[in-house]
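Figure caption, in words: inputs first, then the predicted bound structure.
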Amino acid sequence: SSLFERIGGKPAVEAAVDLFYEKVLADNRIKHFFEGVDMKRQANHQKMFLTYAFGGAPNYPGKSMRQAHQRLVDDLGLTDEHFDAVIENLGATLKELGVADDRIGEAAAIAESTRNDVLCR
Ligand code: HEM
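Bound structure (protoporphyrin IX containing FE present):
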């Protein structure tokens, strides 16, 4: 079965969203990227991110990933260190929820596979 199913599917994503959201918005390395983005879209982002990292959205098109983050790269200098910070928050969130380390590693690897699209290169 997919990582998405093994971690617990949609309910697990929903449980993780609030915690992840809190961590991302409290992280001085990355919180500024979410300034001015409305709460609903921010929550949507955290959900999309987690669904993706859980392997629940296997065909996310690179083109729209690029489009979604182009402004952040061009105007706000989104780069590897910020991407790393998000991955770190993902790991901390899943750890706090009791997800096993090997599954956290799988989730990080899936998120990792989008790095070049998110960073528009
Ligand atoms: C926008 C997914 C990484 C910050 C989006 C959107 C998606 C998405 C689907 C469009 C959402 C919408 O418009 O409602 C992902 C995925 C990622 C990733 C799957 C990696 C696996 C990141 C990182 C950051 C970030 C590393 C910043 C540290 C944002 C922000 C927006 C956005 C601030 C809103 C942009 C705007 O409204 O102008 N992301 N993202 N994302 N993403 Fe990501």
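Residues 91 and 104 are 6 Å apart (CA to CA).
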